[in-house]
Amino acid sequence: MDNIYNEITKYSKHLMLKEPFYGLVLIGLNKELDKNIPTACVTPDNINVKLKVNPKFWDTLDDKTKLGVLKHELLHICFFHLTNWARFDNKKVYNMAADLEINQYINSDMKGEAWDGLEINGPNFAHLNLEEKKGTGYYYAAIIKEIEDNPDGEIAQMANDFEFDIQDGEGLSDAERKLIAKQIDHQLKDVTETLKKGHGTIPSEMKDYIDSLFEVVEPVIDWKSYLRRFNSMSTMVYTKKTRRKPNRRFNEGPALKIKQKKRTLVAIDTSGSVNIKELEEFFNEIYHMYKSGTYIDVIECDTDIQRVYEYKGILENIEVQGRGGTDFEPVMRYLTQHKNAYANLIYLTDGECNPPSTQPIKPILWVHSSQSKINEELPGSKIKIQR
Predict the structure, then answer these.
(1) Are the C-beta atoms of 327 and 354 separated by less than 8 Å?
(2) Distances (CA, A) of 186 to 182, 200, 260, 351
(3) For the chain, how long is the longest CA-to-CA vector?
């Protein structure tokens, strides 16, 4: 068994040289040998994805095909075939369609004599005249039509006998799929950051998706105009040296440019009912608030205040504290206790809580996530993120 793990490590290094993006993904992947699966597969591993390999199957492969099989399973992960499982009714046909898609991205030098993967131009599918690199949905629809037209045909029989290499996708809840997809996003971003340091390039088939991971989404509200409407009861004064105007005291030195930043308290609902996607939306809006020229303190709260910190304008990995129930009251009390520190309060939430008994003493805006309904009982202005 240890010998096979060592071999997989060896092929990880080979893949690093050929296609470093996939090599890095493979290195960071949990791996397990399993005699109960027919060949190899990817399967959920808590919120991660795990690679499983049947040791007897592995021993039947030549060197080229071992590399091709590993990349095949990696492509299932990178193309989100595990988490998209619920969108397709016929799971065996979906797995076949996913194989037809990804095998086009595996070069012939990774397909040895033992390779028997599905190919769009192979003997079983050539008569369908399938277009290249059209996506899993396209191939799924084409196979379904062929089966409906020829229910006793060869492809229908293949679908009936097909053995999955995407396992347990059907048993995932929507919440679990979202968590796994989020974790895959996180891993792909980490790999990309490593490649940016000079270790390789992003494969063309992944470039558009990778670019979207680093894209800053436009805000749903004009924060600069909104925040300008509040009189700044408390401001932060900062200075900047400039040579665009003379220094009246010291002719040779730069002048000081004095500006005031409005100070805003931004509360984040970190209760368990708020999912990762919603937190992403919240931090995206906070980023744009900050860019509008506002000094921000973030307060994280579920049933209690978890932490308060100054926002520095950096889009980082989302790690919030809390994840319990929901109570808006602690933030209202905090605002009352620090009434001279802030001009207004912006509360980012899914709105799933009764309104606070303490009335806000400053202007307040409730920003609801795109997945929630606006809670009309909440005091003050309300808006919903539209995506």
Answers:
(1) no
(2) 6, 18, 37, 27
(3) 94
Cβ atoms within 10 Å of 234's Cβ, excluding its own: 16
CA nearest to 299, candidates 333, 276, 274, 325: 333
CA distance 42 to 142: 25
Residue 218 covered by a domain: no
pLDDT (0 to 100) of residue 231? 44
**Which residues are registered as beta bridge partners of 310?**
297
Position 354, amino acid = N
Of 191, 213, 235, the residue at which a domain comes to its end is 213
DSSP string, 41-109: EEEEETTEEEEEE-HHHHHT--HHHHHHHHHHHHHHHHTTTTTTGGG-S-HHHHHHHHHHHHGGGS-GG
Asked if 42 and 77 sit in the same domain, the reply is: yes
Going 133 to 137 to 140 to 145, the CA torsion angle's sign is negative
**What does the alpha-carbon distance between residue 155 and residue 151 come to, in Å, rounded to a whole number?**
8
Are 121 and 151 in contact, with CB atoms under 8 Å apart? no
> Which letter does DSSP use for residue 350 in this model?
-
pLDDT at res. 233: 43
Which structural domain range is residue 227 located in?
223-384
Tell whether 368 and 304 lie within a shared domain: yes
pTM as predicted: 0.59
- Answer with the one of 213, 248, 265 that is the final residue of a domain: 213
Give the chain's domain count: 2
d(CA 259, CA 243): 16
User: Which two tokens mark 27?
Assistant: 């290195």
Q: Which residues lie below 8 Å from residue 144, measured CB to CB, with a gap of 6+?
A: 90, 93
**Shared domain check, 269 and 203:** no
Along the chain (387 residues), what's the average pLDDT of each consecutive run of 10 residues? 86 88 91 92 87 94 94 93 85 93 94 94 94 92 95 93 74 75 85 80 84 69 69 48 55 57 87 86 88 89 94 72 90 93 92 90 91 91 83
Query: Does residue 232 sit within a domain?
Result: yes
Same domain, 114 and 154: yes
